[in-house]
Amino acid sequence: MNHAGKLAAIRGLMKQQHIDAYIIPSSDPHISEYLPDRYQCIAWASGFTGSAGTLAITSDFAGLWTDSRYFVQAAEQLAGSGYELVKLQVQHAPEYADWLAGKLPENAVVAFDGELTSVSLAKVLLGKLEPLRIQVRGDVDLLTQLWNNRPALPISPAYVLDEDITGEATPAKLQRLRVEMKQNRVDAHFISSLDDLAWLFNIRGSDVNCNPVVLGFGLITADSATLFIDRQKLKPADRVRLDDAGVELADYAEAEGALKRLDEGISLLLDPKRTCFASYRAVSSSVTVVEQTNPTTYLKAVKNTVEIGHTRNTMVKDGVALTRFFKWLEETIGREPITEISLAERLRGFRAEQEGFVGESFDTIAAYRAHGALPHYKATPDSNSVLQSEGLLLVDSGGQYRTGTTDITRVISLGHITDIQRTDYTLVLKGMIEGSTAVFPKGTRGYQVDAITRKPLWDHLRNYGHGTGHGVGFFLNVHEGPHIFNTAAVDIPVTPGMITSIEPGLYREGNYGIRIENLVLAVDNEKTVFGPFLSFETLTLCYIDTDLVDKSLLETRHINWLNDYHSLVYNKLASFLTTEEQQWLAQKTAAI
């Protein structure tokens, strides 16, 4: 079936089961951002491949609700599918719930699959629709019977990391978690989110593309820790290591049964944003459910000294790979065909030469000219542009190494740059420098750093539609909470040890896009009579194209930062480069 045929088949099942609206979120039973193939439900149903969106289907309308990062992509991919793009006003907001509330009559039935819907989202739907006498069902899977040859759950091997990599053994992490549980006065804690499990049990795998995680659930009490996982993924030696750490292994499919068997009268902590509704509904009404963010999410966000040291070394490896990549590109373009896809493949090759490289931390965004205006663009055989010796090229990429995770964006000139492109580029750079050099009091939130970063663009009546920065894991997910630098009033203070991206941008649809991104580490700065202050240490090591810089738009402090940064880049990388590569990098990092 094509996508229009699949939509018709879904509507046929809806009619049979007397369902007036069916919701398909981009999710899995672990409420992941990036999904195993089995749970690529939106792509299967509609053709849209972005990482954020929701389908809402009624008898006479089918829409994809997504945010500004995907407007152009969604419009192209939904053509002929029977679905229409609905532009979200607020990123990740369930605005389709209000649309359904205004559209459906009393006694209508709205349904969704509880395994693919978070507790928080399910409660929003219930809260908005049930008072209007609209029935909400969270136990309906319409896709499995229609999806021929649906991919099975992944069976990739998993492994346990050594303490000299993680800096902290699982028993110590469990002890810290149990302290948090005691403070929250709960008897048990259920964990669904895969990166929290990976951190707590020091396990990694490849069940999800680009994210080194393993499908599983965790149930922790004061005297037990159970990891629900496909045991065949682990070598016998790793099973012994987990057993020695006080971790009992159980089958992946047994997690729901364990929730049903919890003792009456106990209290259970779970994260409503990171736990699916089906797991929540499995808990007996005699159990008191405490809904809070997973304590491990906070613990994981603050890197220990071993993780920080490994990350600094990993940035050197990544910087060497990037230097060789950009040198190759400059010397090759115009001599042989280079496309966006071949460019991404070549970059992966340079990273793969580095010790400890495991894979990419996300699909590389190699975006030439107008494609750069699509913040989450991914080249396809149909869109694959051939690079020419003119225009702007945006490359947003990252690597997963056993000693850290990287994420970097650079824009370079391929020739014949206009004055407005130079202005836009310089203002984005100025914003990145402002964010990177911010000094701020303890307790500062991400939205405050976001505003500091945006101000140079605001001063020239420019802006961008995505956040300024996201947390980054340690050999884990490239997008990691709980902290984030964006306009949302997320009440999470910036804390020493957190690694975050700073990535302002500017996008002119149909023409070009600019984004410059470094990763930074929050560090203690100085304590004064006004309290303690923090600042950032820049971790990323890669030159910034100065051919695009208009110095008249920068203050002396911005120029000094750029020159100092380039000196740091050269000094950190030079000893790992050949003489020819050193000479090339010296030119790219020359003071302006």
Automatic annotation (TrEMBL):
> Which positions fall inside the Peptidase M24 domain?
314-521
CDD domains recorded = APP
What species does this protein belong to?
A: Parapedobacter indicus
What keywords does the record list, in alphabetical order? Aminopeptidase, Hydrolase, Metal-binding, Protease
One MF term in the entry's GO annotations:
metalloaminopeptidase activity
Q: Which protein family is named in the record?
A: Belongs to the peptidase M24B family.
What's the protein name?
Answer: Xaa-Pro aminopeptidase
Report the Pfam families cross-referenced here: Creatinase_N (PF01321), Creatinase_N_2 (PF16189), Peptidase_M24 (PF00557), Peptidase_M24_C (PF16188)
Q: Which residues form the Peptidase M24 C-terminal domain?
A: 532-592
InterPro entries named in the record: Creatin/AminoP/Spt16_N (IPR029149), Creatinase/aminopeptidase-like (IPR036005), Creatinase_N (IPR000587), Pept_M24 (IPR000994), Pept_M24B (IPR033740), Peptidase_M24_C (IPR032416), X-Pro_aminopeptidase_P (IPR050422)
